[in-house]
Design brief:
Length: 291
């Protein structure tokens, strides 16, 4: 199985007023992130507004990312649906485009029992020949992955990773204790990455890494080198970004941050709203603080 580790920015999906993906902007962002030292790219995570895009837009985002990466870093593409058939079709399409892995996300309108949640993720993993990262986010998911389901899914030959956005670091330790070497844990921006690295995480998949890639890679390297005092000094500084973003819509924040840095990524997809002028100043100040 591929070795995913380190910093995987959750990419934004730049969309113009007519609904077209701004492929040039996305391509330049991917190239710059790779040159900043990130270890992989994740199109169509939460920051990528997967829930607001058509299948054609999603495919364009994944294809653009893969073409920009040119095999330099792995691309783990987000797949999300309320139905198994659609999720499986998306996963197969991503593999065909050349994705190195799948980030499997469950959308649910009606609540689902454990067996049905497990069936969704297992079906996606059965449909492809590339590694699958299962994603859990209790804040946004109507039907979430329980520890029992995670433990059973970890035995699947292609499910080798989990990205947990629960904000509960104790839950991460429970996953590690239960699943051992069967599953490796990525944290989210909702966690404190240095703390997750300390307990055995292997990196983080997060939107803020889009706008602070060099600092994120530096933090990862300090953690890998067990230089915990320096890591915590940097982590404290970088946490200001997370605090700013926790106040507003995530995609709007990252898109505003990228616009400040010169990337014309556009506004979030309606009915989401762009940041107000005052909110944008908060993001500007946070970026200034971290240099």
């Amino acid at each position: 199985m591929a070795d995913f580790h380190g910093v995987f920015p959750y990419l934004v999906s730049p969309v113009d007023a007519s609904g077209q993906i701004r492929t040039e902007v996305l391509g330049r962002l991917c190239d710059d992130l790779i040159k900043s030292g990130v270890h992989g790219l994740t199109p169509l995570g939460s920051t990528g507004e997967f829930a607001y895009l058509s299948n054609a837009q999603r495919a364009a985002v994944v294809q653009t990312t893969i073409e920009a990466a040119k095999g330099r870093v792995p691309v783990v593409a987000g797949v999300a649906s309320t139905s198994i058939a659609d999720a499986v079709a998306q996963a197969k399409a991503c593999q065909k485009l050349g994705a190195d892995g799948i980030l499997a996300i469950l959308e649910a309108y009606f609540p689902l029992a454990d067996a049905q949640v497990e069936s969704y993720f297992r079906s996606v993993a059965d449909a492809v020949d590339i590694p699958v990262v299962i994603y859990t986010n209790p804040q946004f998911q109507r039907s979430d992955l329980t520890l029992d389901v995670i433990e059973r899914l970890a035995a699947h030959p292609r499910i080798g990773y989990i990205k947990d956005a629960s904000t509960n670091t104790g839950r991460l330790l429970s996953i590690m204790n239960r699943c051992g070497d069967n599953i490796k844990v990525f944290s989210a921006s909702a966690h404190i990455p240095a703390a997750v690295m300390l307990i055995g995480g292997l990196g983080w998949m997060a939107g803020p890494a889009c706008i602070i890639p060099r600092q994120s890679v530096e933090l990862y390297n300090l953690c890998r080198g067990a230089r915990w005092d320096e890591a915590m000094m940097l982590q404290r500084k970088l946490w200001r970004i997370n605090e700013a973003f926790a106040r507003f819509n995530l995609a709007a924040c990252i898109k505003a941050g990228l616009a400040i840095q010169g990337y014309e990524v556009g506004d979030p997809v309606p009915p989401q709203a762009a940041l107000t002028a005052d909110q944008r100043k908060v993001v500007e100040a946070a970026l200034r603080d971290v240099g």
